[in-house]
Amino acid sequence: MKLYIFETSTIPHKIKLVTTSRIFEFYKSLKSLPDLDACFIRVHKSFVVNKYHIVSLDLKKNNIKMSNGHICRISNTYRNILKNIIKT
Question: Which stretches make up the HTH LytTR-type domain (predicted)?
């Protein structure tokens, strides 16, 4: 099973984990997730993504396209950090 995205849920303090086969929901702080593994990077207050599944980066629209087709927003706060990570 591949892990693509951690995303905030509409339910407060709940997170959605998007995988190849399912979407899991659980209670946790999105802020604590990037510490789990270096492959996960914060790109928005609502998204933590697996950098190995980023297909494209659209800086004009501030979007990331993931290998599963999911589109995630990029905030200005994380934009430059993301550009540096993608270059390496």
Answer: 1-88
